[in-house]
Amino acid sequence: MGILSRWLTRRSTPDEGDAAQIHALVERVVALSPQLRLARDYESRLTAAVRQASSYVHRLVDDVPPAREASAAAWASDPYIHAFFAAPDDVCAALSRSHALRACFDEHPLADELFAVLGMAIDERQVFGVAQHGDAARTDVAQTTVSFSDHQVRVCGLSEQALRDEIVLRIIDQLVLEGLGKIEADARRYESLEHERAVLKTRLQILERQGAGVRSLVGSDAASNYAEVARLRAQIDESDQALAQLPLKTDALERHLEVICGVLGAPDSYFYVLKKTYLLDAMNVVVKHGESRPAQEIELRMAHLPANVTGMRAFSPVRFRRGNLLPATDVHTRARGLVI
After folding, report:
1. Cα–Cα distance between 297 and 210 in angstroms, integer?
2. Distance CA 93, CA 98 (A)
3. pLDDT tens for residues 124-152?
4. 173 Cβ contact partners less than 8 Å away, ≥ 6 residues apart
5. How many domains, the chain?
6. 218, part of any domain
7. By Cβ atoms counted within 10 A, which residue in 5, 74, 115, 235 is the most buried?
């Protein structure tokens, strides 16, 4: 990580810096799947794919707003921190639960502040609430509320630039893992089809030994036996066709490299960021344009990650001071208090 980080931030000529960064990323990809080195022209082919993925991911990361201060004091003044957390005390409690944040502070005892990515689940709900209409208050007004939960901090950096560089690396890693998952799925599919074909052929052989495939067979069961043989042969043909569409085991290295390059060459199919704007009041109720009650506009970044079963996650870069880190005993005490 140290060498790669220096490559990512070195101030050399554009061509030299870019070449060093891409080479470092290629080596990082190969470290995750060393057998790729045995594939034909692996370096040149990976270089082209990695360059495309790196360019795409850097554009996304560069578009992310600056880190926001995450503290109880910021809850009162920053509409984003206010929206993310229900109460000021929740800010430090949530970030203090992060093992990654604590470990980073431990690794850098002189650091007074760290930068991190705060990820959250977001939930929009339609509810009936209270609204003022003229001099009367109505309690059956349809409203939309926005809430944030499952606050997670897993990526940290000593500076904002270091954090952004680490985000790029993590996304590249995740794209490679997505490719490796596809390779494993192909292997499981191949093994499943081979097993299925072997079972079908065994059943066919048993039927033929019983005389189902002999023209001299006569009797009341002949038609059904012939039908079963025909059905088994058709299934075997289907399995053969499905196997033919999968790469041969002898071509596994070529297939592995193709899959990894395919994912890295089309990163927007696996990772993307959407923007969504909300106009929220102090209770995180969506305020419609034209309404007179006080509200603040926030523009969220929503990330779709490969293999993320929970769907889109809201995220924001934050900076967190060591002085706001709660003692571990306090974190555990607060967590127990939330258990009903």
Report:
1. 78
2. 9
3. 998 887 666 655 566 667 889 999 999 99
4. 28, 32
5. 1
6. yes
7. 115
